[in-house]
Amino acid sequence: MRMNTQNWKPRFFIIWIGQAFSLLGSSLVGFALIWWLTTSTGSATVLALATLAGMLPQIVLSPFAGVIVDRFSRRIVMLAADSAVALTTLLLLSLFAAGLAQPWHVFVAMFIRSAGGAFHFPAMQASTSLMVPEQHLSRVAGMNQTLQGLMSIAAPPLGALLISVWPIHQVLLIDIVTALLAIGPLLVFAIPQPPKRTSASGTPAPQTSFTQDLREGLRYVLSWRGLSIIMLMAMALNFLLTPAASLIPILVTKYFGGGAPQMAMQEAAWGAGAIAGGLLLSVWGGFKRRILTSMLGLSGIGLGFLVIGLLPPSMFVAAVVCFFFLGITNPITNGPIFAVLQSTVAPEMQGRVMSLLMAASGAMTPLSLLVAGPIADALGVQVWFIIGGVVCLLIAAVGVFIPALMNIEDQMKRPQDGDVPVATAPAMGR
Fold first, then answer.
1. Which of 213, 281, 331, 366 has its CA 20 to 30 A from that of 102?
2. What is the pLDDT of residues 97-138, one digit of tens each?
3. Residue 163: which CATH number?
4. pTM for this structure?
5. Is 204 helix (H, G, I), strand (E, B) or coil?
């Protein structure tokens, strides 16, 4: 059940600030580890393996993590995830301090850190919906997007500065300290849990197996058309936009003829836009029908990508403006979607739904990278931006005419006993 909404801010924001510091530490350490791999090996294969080590847990473990989040205390899940990441970093720090660290040690550490994120993210998202009043969920989502934008700007230069003046094991110590800042509030404050399932007679429902819970999560998503559409949209957008992001260095250097300063300008523009968009969403909160806010943001993403793809090579400054615009539209698209899920998905199902969404969209990344590379080589990197922009605009245009999607906020689905697809009930607070 939800906590007392009259005094929700102190508890939530103390927890949130601790998590923000932990995110900063993780971002700095992630940059430091990639930099160490780059300078110590100079191998593209090593960097590809590091990327794979950081990606696989999010794809493979997320569905199972969601079941654990919904079965057990979300506070304990977050504590365990943060503690495992901190312990892993401590062990890696010891190896670096002793001069024994090898690339494979870093791969293992990145795998475990990513696995911790696979458990922590759905637990925190599902907990937020029970700690924050529904009318403020979009604003909190905007704050999260602002934080992501700040990290994208601050972490690389700060990480580069620290790695230039400190040995890497001292940089790793920052991650341990910031993890403790995240763990501390979780030891002090309780986090509300969703109500226990009951049968039709009002008695506690029998305990289901892990496999049954996993199947129930899949049925829950597939039986709700609006939720299934959101998942398909997330998969399509990840397929289109992830390769475009990976091709930006080629776009800047080979198409626009830029170098490192131009790459920095592009990254700074996107990060500044993400901060601006997150702050805008935090203050504004979006339209009353939050899914409409996301469709507006998605149409902005499509427009930005399309314009970048159509710009001539001499108009790099216009491309930087477009990247700033894309940064703004990113939180306007993503933030309300998370708020919609948090306010409409049954609390006892949110861990599984969030995790399935992560796994399904993340699984598109390897496939899309395989497809995008040959297309960009054959037709030019800007073609992928045009394709992505046109499809985003089409999805946004079609989406507003799909009643199941536009009306998703008017429904809340609760699972029934017996692992059966569920009926709809009015959403809380409406």
1. 366
2. 999 999 999 999 999 999 998 899 899 988 888 898 888 888
3. 1.20.1250.20
4. 0.76
5. strand
